[in-house]
Amino acid sequence: MWRWLLAVFIILLIVNALTPWFQRIGFGRLPGDFNFTLFGRRFSLPFMSTILLSLAAALIARLI
After folding, report:
1. How many other C-beta atoms are found inside a 10 Å radius of the C-beta of residue 28?
2. CB atoms within 10 A of CB 49
3. What are the φ/ψ torsions at residue 18 (nearest 5 degrees)?
4. Longest dimension (CA), the chain
5. Band of residue 59 on the pLDDT scale cut at 50, 70, 90
6. Helix (H, G, I), strand (E, B) or coil at 2
7. pLDDT tens digits, one per residue of 22-47
8. From CA 44, how far away is CA 37, in angstroms rounded?
9. Where are the transmembrane segments (predicted)?
């Protein structure tokens, strides 16, 4: 269980670090992605981007 927790934590750190790069290429700005500011902090809920990335990963996994 600790290995899974550590793996998820490391993946979240990597995704958080790559978020500005993802936004430059268009992820997080699709219809269905919600961005809002609350108490001076910017929050992003990229629902559509997540769906597209998971579909791409499933397609790649199916081809391999």
Report:
1. 19
2. 19
3. -90, 0
4. 45
5. very high
6. helix
7. 778 877 788 888 888 989 988 888 88
8. 9
9. 43-61
What's the rounded Cα separation, in Å, for the pair 29 and 32?
8
Rounded to 10 degrees, the C-alpha dihedral 44/33/48/54 comes to -10
Tokens (6 digits) for 62: 């199916």
- Would you mind telling me the total number of residues written for the chain in this entry? 64
Helix ranges (DSSP H) in 1-46:
2-24
Structure tokens at 46: 């990229």
Query: Which residues make beta-bridge pairs with 35?
Result: 44
Where does residue 26 fall: left (phi above 0), alpha (psi -120 to 50 degrees), or beta otherwise? left
Residue 48 to residues 23, 25, 29, 38, Cα–Cα distance (Å): 13, 15, 9, 21
